[in-house]
Design brief:
Layout (H helix, E strand, L loop, with lengths): L44 H13 L15 H35 L6 H18 L1 H24 L1 H4 L10 H23 L6 H33 L3 H42 L12 H8 L9 H24 L7 H93 L1 H4 L23 H39 L4 H14 L8 H4 L3
Length: about 525
């Protein structure tokens, strides 16, 4: 019926396109050719009269029987020719009627009942849903657990976090990209400052600079993520103290690292000046400067730097360290420890559930599109079948008129030829009365002309069949319209159910929450998912 159709519609309605009636019965197939197909018997009136005179002159004995068996040979020929026309017309019409009956039978669909059609649609729809049932159940279960965990977290820490929600636009990938960028930026800047202090030039400076920059960024991220976040926002006193310790150690370590690098670069600058003055520049290497010497030069004046390059290096390192601390504190996750984790967990579970729901929606959307196409096709085919059945009956009526006209023409000729024959026969008998004597009397069957009977051409059976078929089609059209209206309403209900979280989810979560954390303030599902 369609290139891609619904399975339940394979045995319902009109399965193939409705083609117009093509009655292959022709008059020539039943011996009615040429003039004979127009009702012309092909007998000459003059020759018929001549035969009548000859028969009268032969002195045929008088018969009292008024039957066609007593007709003359010419009258028998006329009657046989006319009867052949009538038989051909009868056969032609019966063949046409049989074609029409078969056509009506082929165009008549089975009865369509709205209730059965709806159940068939729902049955196939459930099969589409069945393939996604397991994934949908798993996604729903994980999402419910994530919502419960989020609500429990907010209920436990609601007095601290208030109505604040994490910014879901923040993501770890973006933060890592920023950290890598500032690390590369600091490493490139440091490489330019260290390239003149060792023999390998810029390449060697890059290696040293990137190593220092990576350590600087890592200390800053740890200080911000595990230090500031826990020290300022964590409700647990032990973890707050631990976070304060990490924050203090991280800040001191970052500051010391950058001061050490700046003093080291200052010592390198001093060594370069001394080597240049002594003429031993080729033997100088920055690795000859020991860390102990640098550390001893840092005290007691820790910020006392003589080189502008060292001061720039210190400013650049502290800036990168501060950015790393901020990224670790505010950009990797929510400032309140644990809040971003449960929030992202709920969002991922929700997105997974939506993805499963969208997959089901796409499959059902294609299925419902096929259903709509099937209904449109069936409505057009039922209307076409009704129209073609009426046209077939009109063809049958028109052929009946043609057959009646041909039969009437043949009957008129038959009657006219018989009348001409008998009148000529009587006249000739009257003229030969003296010669024939007692044999001059006309036969008794000449007193009555038998009127040829026209074929009835009754098509009541075909008309009843056509009326029954049209009634079935009208009932099916009504059933199709009712079912199509139901389908549109059903599609809206399905789409509404697939496009939103079920109301029962909130009720179930509330029950679970009440069992887990009795006495806590309730946070609704919509509020928990508001972002």
């Amino acid at each position: 019926m369609l290139k891609k159709t619904v399975r339940w519609g394979a045995d319902v309605g009109c399965q193939s396109k409705i083609k117009p009636l093509d009655p292959k019965a022709e008059l020539t197939d039943f011996g009615l050719k040429g003039k004979l197909a127009e009702g012309e018997l092909g007998f000459s009136r003059m020759l018929t009269k001549r035969d009548a005179k000859k028969d009268a002159a032969d002195g045929l004995p008088v018969s009292e029987a008024i039957t066609p068996d007593q007709w003359s040979e010419r009258e028998q020929q006329i009657a046989e020719r006319a009867e052949a026309v009538r038989r051909g017309l009868n056969t032609w019409m019966s063949t046409t009627a049989a074609n029409v009956r078969n056509f009506i039978h082929d165009c008549t669909p089975i009865d369509i009942y709205p209730d059965q059609l709806r159940e068939a649609i729902k049955s196939e729809e459930n099969e589409y849903r069945h393939y996604e049932q397991d994934d949908r159940s798993d996604a729903k279960h994980s999402h419910d657990e994530a919502i419960i965990e989020l609500q429990t977290f907010r209920a436990r820490h609601g007095d601290r976090i208030g109505d604040r929600t994490p910014d879901i636009k923040k993501n770890v990938e973006q933060t890592v990209a920023i950290l890598v960028f500032i690390m590369l930026l600091e490493g490139g800047f440091n490489a330019l400052l260290f390239k003149d202090a060792q023999a390998s030039g810029l390449l060697g400076g890059l290696m040293i600079a990137f190593a220092v920059s990576a350590v600087n960024v890592c200390i800053g991220v740890i200080t911000g993520f595990f230090g500031l976040r826990y020290a300022f926002n964590h409700p647990n006193i032990a973890l707050k103290v631990l976070g304060g310790t990490v924050m203090a150690v991280g800040l001191v370590s970052g500051l010391f690292l950058n001061l050490f690098v700046a003093h080291f670069r200052d010592a390198v600058e001093t060594g370069l000046i001394a080597a240049t003055a002594a003429g031993t520049m080729a033997e100088f290497s920055m690795f000859d400067i020991s860390p102990a010497t640098v550390m001893s030069s840092m005290f007691p004046n820790i910020i006392g730097l003589e080189s502008f390059i060292a001061m720039g290096l210190l400013f650049m390192g502290l800036t990168v360290f501060g950015l790393a601390v901020y990224e670790g504190y505010d950009r990797i996750s929510d400032r309140y420890p644990g809040y971003g984790r449960v929030w992202r967990k709920e969002r991922k579970a929700y997105e997974r559930r939506q993805a499963v729901r969208n997959g089901v929606r796409d499959d059902l959307s294609e299925y419902f599109t096929q259903c709509r196409l099937w209904f449109e096709t069936q409505l057009s085919r039922h209307a076409a079948a009704k129209r073609e059945i009426e046209k077939a009956m009109n063809v049958l009526d028109s052929r009946r008129d043609v057959a009646a006209s041909i039969a009437a023409n043949a009957a008129d000729q038959e009657r006219s030829l018989k009348v001409a024959y008998r009148q000529a026969h009587r006249r000739q008998r009257n003229q030969l009365r003296d010669k024939l004597g007692e044999q001059a009397a006309c036969p008794a069957y000449f007193d009555e002309i038998v009127t040829p009977q026209l074929p009835p051409f009754d098509f009541k059976k075909e008309r009843d069949q056509a009326n029954a078929a049209i009634k079935t089609i009208d009932q099916n059209l009504t059933a199709l319209n009712l079912t199509r209206e139901w389908l549109e309403t059903h599609i809206q209900q399905v789409q509404k159910g697939l496009s939103s979280i079920e109301k029962k989810v909130g009720e179930e979560i509330e029950k679970v929450r009440e069992g887990k954390s009795a006495g806590k303030a309730f946070v609704s599902v919509d509020e928990a998912r508001r972002a």
